[in-house]
Design goal:
Blueprint lengths: L21 H12 L11 E8 L8 H13 L7 E9 L3 E4 L6 H9 L10 H14 L4 E6 L6 H13 L4 E6 L3 H13 L3 E5 L4 H25 L2 H10 L1
Parallel strand pairs: 1-2, 1-4, 4-5, 5-6
Antiparallel strand pairs: 2-3
Helix pairs in contact: 1-8, 2-3, 2-7, 4-5, 5-6, 7-8
C-alpha cells in the first residue's frame, strides 16, 4: 500500500443526533473482558486505526476526527503504542500510513484526511490487518464507519481469520444503518472483538472507551491501572 497523501481539511458541519444505549456499551465492555492483555514483551502494543472516509460520513467527520485524536492523546503519557492510520474513500483509494508512536503527529495526519464519494472497502482493511500481523503482532484493529456495501460473507471470513490469529476488531458504528449493524456485529464477534454504536449523543462516553482501548493495546492491565480514568476503571472491573 502506498503512503498517504496530504489532502485538504474539511469544514465544520452539523452532526446527526442519536444515542447509544447503556446496554450496548455494557456489551462492548463485556467483550473486552474476554481478551488477553497486549503482549508488551517487544516494548509496546501495535494498533491499526481504520476509518471510512466516504462522503456519507461528511456530516459527522469533524466530531469523529476530534474523538479519534483524543484517543491517542490519552496514551501520550503511557507511551508504548505504535499506531497505523488507515482510510478508504473515492474510487478504490485505500491508504495506510507508516507506524507512528507520536500521538500529536498522528492527530495532525488524521486532520489532513477529507471525505470523498465512493463505496466501502472494509475487505481491504481486514486483509491489511491480517497481512501486517503476519510481519509483527498487531494487538487490535479499531474500525469506524457508518455503512457496508460489500459481501458480508467475505468480510466474515476475514474477521474469523483475524480472530484465529489474535487480532480483535473493535467496531464503532455511526448512525443506524441496519445492514451495516448486522455486518459489524458479526465482524466483531468472529474476530473476538467488540461492537458499539458511535454518535453525537454518546460522544463523551465513547471518547473514554476509545482511549481505554488504546491504553489497553499499549500495555494491557498494568497500563489501564495507571490511566486513572472512569472508563479505565470500568474496563478493569470487567477484566476481573
Amino acid at each position: 500500500m502506498s503512503e498517504p497523501k496530504t489532502p485538504s481539511k474539511t469544514s465544520s458541519s452539523e452532526v446527526a443526533q442519536g444515542t447509544s444505549s447503556s446496554a450496548e456499551v455494557d456489551a462492548f465492555l463485556g467483550k473486552v473482558k474476554s481478551l488477553q492483555p497486549a503482549n508488551t514483551g517487544s516494548g509496546g502494543g501495535r494498533l491499526i486505526f481504520a476509518m471510512d472516509a466516504t462522503m456519507s460520513r461528511q456530516p459527522s467527520w469533524d466530531l469523529a476526527l476530534g474523538l479519534q485524536s483524543e484517543m491517542f492523546r490519552a496514551v501520550k503519557q503511557v507511551g508504548g503504542l505504535d499506531v497505523q492510520l488507515m482510510y478508504f474513500r473515492g474510487f478504490s483509494e485505500c491508504r495506510a500510513s507508516k507506524w507512528v508512536r507520536d500521538p500529536d503527529a498522528l492527530a495532525r495526519l488524521m486532520r489532513q484526511v477529507h471525505c470523498e464519494g465512493g463505496c466501502t472497502q472494509i475487505r481491504k482493511v481486514l486483509s491489511h490487518a491480517r497481512k501486517e500481523t503476519g510481519r509483527q503482532t498487531v494487538n487490535a484493529l479499531v474500525y469506524v464507519g457508518d455503512c457496508m456495501e460489500e459481501s458480508v460473507d467475505a468480510l466474515c471470513q476475514l474477521a474469523g481469520e483475524l480472530g484465529l490469529i489474535g487480532v480483535p476488531v473493535f467496531v464503532f458504528q455511526e448512525g443506524h444503518d441496519p445492514r451495516a449493524e448486522r455486518a459489524f456485529k458479526e465482524i466483531a464477534r468472529l474476530s473476538r472483538g467488540a461492537y458499539c454504536r458511535f454518535d453525537a449523543g454518546s460522544a463523551a462516553q465513547l471518547r473514554a472507551l476509545l482511549a481505554a482501548v488504546a491504553v489497553y493495546a499499549s500495555g494491557g492491565r498494568k497500563a489501564l491501572e495507571g490511566a486513572k480514568s472512569g472508563a479505565a476503571t470500568l474496563l478493569l472491573e470487567q477484566l476481573r
